[in-house]
TrEMBL record:
It comes from the Eukaryota. The keyword Transmembrane applies. It comes from Origma solitaria. It is a multi-pass membrane protein. InterPro entries: Ion_channel_UNC-93, MFS_trans_sf, UNC-93-like_regulator. This is UNC93-like protein MFSD11. PANTHER family: ET TRANSLATION PRODUCT-RELATED, UNC93-LIKE PROTEIN MFSD11. CDD domains: MFS_MFSD11.
Length: 447
């Protein structure tokens, strides 16, 4: 197998592995608040929003050390161990207890930081300036199939249910735990590149591990970490606004919007199964966006900005329709749901259209962020992607926290404001990147 074929194989395996793990985790996140609402009449007292806030808060802090961990143990082993913690978190829902639920939330936050830093390193190592756009799109499309399969099961399994029984819950989460473990095992199929460097140094991971002073090396990586330096560069600070927006949107479509749909009593007996259908339509949007932008990356000569512009326009349309279609108290409705209406009688068709638009717009932003980070920081991929996940996850944590209290209109307004400024800052960085390419005589032809 040629070097290029091996790299593409690694990207596909990376995407498929993430697809399995996040089929389990994103389905879990999509239904967690609904499941927990049905548990709060028992001895269990927890909040899905609070759990997600803990996860993303810990994730953001853990990004300070995740490049060091990936440098020491290598990206492949980092992803395997992290995948095990994802499976553990999902398994907690089989027989949930408040203390195990929140403890697992802390551990998965740490694991997620390591997982995504290793993913960014693996993506960059297996790409170059000409293939980073394509590989980002391929990975993102494969990853977003995770929204399709798990939610399809939820849609059919919970059809006509207004209450989630203990048997229903256990069946779903046993299946999701097994799926997550399958994705974790697949990481072993990723083939090492001969020229793979450990993040932030010239030595390979094997050479680092082979030295007797590994603890001294760890301290070196920790205190000489390039993340702090990179985070204060003009490009990274500008991209951080765009990244912050993706964190807010991640919270909304992966947790809040599904909860809103499940709380609308006017949807009748379909309200719970519609949560799964919403996830499916979000996944279709993500897959379509990732696939199209990956395939077109070699043909586009106008760069990343048109894709990001499409993303913000699609999201603004979705927010407008959601504002008119969803009751304002839907995100914080009690177990009995809400009988309120917004500016129109709640429509299932409009709700599903908005799910699709949320996924399509999110793929526009994330594929282009992955692409531009891999292009700008090809030599410092681990710290660059650590900063990306730090900003994204801390904003997601904040959003999950205020989702316990804010009405729908305020959550939408926050996303509109941050999204507008995030688009402007992305444009600025992209124009600078285009100017840099032109200065050295390169053809500006990849998204």
């Amino acid at each position: 197998m040629s070097s290029e074929a091996k790299k593409l194989f690694n990207i596909i395996i990376l995407g498929v592995s993430f697809m399995f793990i996040f089929t389990a985790f994103q389905t879990c996140g999509n239904i967690a608040q609904t499941v927990i609402t049905n548990l709060n009449s028992t001895d269990f007292h927890g909040s899905g929003y609070t759990s997600m806030s803990i996860i993303y808060g810990v994730l953001s802090a853990s990004n300070l050390i995740s490049p060091s961990v990936v440098a020491i143990v290598g990206p492949q082993f980092s992803m395997v161990v992290s995948g095990m913690f994802y499976s553990l978190y999902i398994a907690v829902f089989i027989q949930p207890a408040t203390w195990t639920f929140y403890t697992a939330s802390v551990f998965i936050g740490i694991a997620a930081a390591v997982l995504w830093t290793a993913q960014g390193n693996c993506l960059t190592v297996n790409s170059d300036e000409n293939t980073i756009g394509r590989n980002s799109g391929v990975f993102w499309a494969l990853l977003q199939f995770s929204l399709f399969f798990g939610n399809l099961y939820i849609y059919f399994a919970w059809q006509g249910k207004t209450h989630i029984s203990e048997s229903d819950r256990r069946t779903v989460f046993i299946a999701l735990t097994v799926i997550s473990l399958v994705g974790t095992v697949l990481f072993f199929l990723i083939r090492k590149q001969e020229d793979t460097k450990a993040p932030g140094d010239d030595d390979s991971t094997n050479e680092i591990l082979g030295e007797s002073s590994s603890f001294i090396n760890f301290l070196h990586y920790f205190f000489a970490e390039k993340s702090i330096t990179l985070s204060f560069t003009k490009e990274m600070m500008l991209l951080s606004v765009t990244t912050a927006y993706t964190g807010l949107v991640l919270t909304f479509f992966s947790g809040v919007y599904g909860t809103c749909i499940g709380a609308v009593n006017r949807f009748g007996s379909e309200e719970k199964s519609l949560i799964g259908l919403s996830g499916i339509f979000t996944g279709v949007g993500e897959i379509l966006g990732g696939g199209v932008f990956g395939l077109l990356s070699k043909r586009s000569r106008s760069g990343r900005n048109p894709v990001v512009m499409l993303g913000i326009l699609v999201h603004f349309i979705a927010f407008y329709l959601i504002f008119f279609n969803m009751p304002n108290d839907a995100p914080i409705a009690p177990m009995e749901g809400t009988d309120q209406i917004a500016y129109m009688i709640p429509s299932k068709e409009v709700a599903m259209l908005c799910s699709f638009l949320l996924g399509l717009g999110d793929s526009c932003f994330n594929t282009q962020l992955l692409s531009i980070l891999g292009f700008l920081y090809s030599e410092d991929s681990a710290p660059a992607f650590a900063i990306f996940k730090f900003v994204q996850s801390i904003c997601a944590a904040v959003a999950y926290f205020y989702s316990n209290y804010f009405l729908l209109e305020w959550q939408l307004l926050i996303m509109v404001i941050v999204g507008f400024f995030g688009t402007i800052t992305f444009f600025t960085v992209e124009w600078r990147a285009a100017a840099a390419l032109a200065a050295r005589g390169s053809d500006y032809s990849s998204i």
